[in-house]
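[recover] target loaded
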């Protein structure tokens, strides 16, 4: 059994519009999994189901053999950073802790460690409105990691950023996930982003998983993005998203 297992999961909105249609997927522990597909295919809904934020109509979702529910074991990074403008960077990072209990010295030390890993130590007392989009995204990721989740779910967190900043954040995120040995489910529209970051990629269409692929590449580095092997994988995914058409 995988680390996270979805078995025959379906989900419909109130008007009986079927969004997720009998999806079965297993996430291997410590691996980076990406989910791609055209807008409206159901990938964000599937991500929310995997987080326990939605309850499936049918089927089962288990995390380490137990029925899924929202918990500190699961970190979620939304498409928009959703930072509180009246709190400083370090206060935003510590927010999940402060909502549950009194923040300790150990919590502050952990937050500062995450800031250092994200290259944001010098901004810890700044407010979100004074940060760039990339810096806000880094704070959002650090906030999701403050409780050391065993699984991290991300919904297109870099979609609004420029290409260079996206690439920098991809490298940062991969380093953090490797450091903490996290299992990741990452939703994106960007094929090259998914290929660069992932151990495994699944493609959705009309609520179903229609294609999946193990990504076998050399060590991730900038030059890899321009290699023939990398471009071949991108083409495979593009064809799958287009229903088998080039």
């Amino acid at each position: 059994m995988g680390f996270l297992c979805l078995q025959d999961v379906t989900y419909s909105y109130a008007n009986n519009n079927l969004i997720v249609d009998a999806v079965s997927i297993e996430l291997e522990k410590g691996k980076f999994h990406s989910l791609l597909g055209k807008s409206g295919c159901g990938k964000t809904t599937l991500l929310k189901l995997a987080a326990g934020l939605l309850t499936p109509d049918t089927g089962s979702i288990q995390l380490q053999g137990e029925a899924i529910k929202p918990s500190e074991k699961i970190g979620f990074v939304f498409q928009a950073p959703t930072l509180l403008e009246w709190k400083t960077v370090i206060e935003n990072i510590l927010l999940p802790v402060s909502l549950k209990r009194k923040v300790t010295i150990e919590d502050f030390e952990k937050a500062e460690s995450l800031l250092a890993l994200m290259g944001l130590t010098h901004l810890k007392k700044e407010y979100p409105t004074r940060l760039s989009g990339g810096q806000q995204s880094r704070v959002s990721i650090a906030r999701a990691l403050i409780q050391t989740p065993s699984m991290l779910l991300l919904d297109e967190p870099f979609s609004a950023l420029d290409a260079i900043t996206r690439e920098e954040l991809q490298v940062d995120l991969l380093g953090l996930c490797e450091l903490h040995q996290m299992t990741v489910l990452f939703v994106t529209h960007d094929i090259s982003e998914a290929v660069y970051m992932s151990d495994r990629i699944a493609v959705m269409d009309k609520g179903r998983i229609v294609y999946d692929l193990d990504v076998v590449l050399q060590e991730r580095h900038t030059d890899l993005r321009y290699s023939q092997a990398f471009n071949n994988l991108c083409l495979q995914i593009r064809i799958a998203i287009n229903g088998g058409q080039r």
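[recover] notes: The two ends are 35 Å apart (CA to CA).
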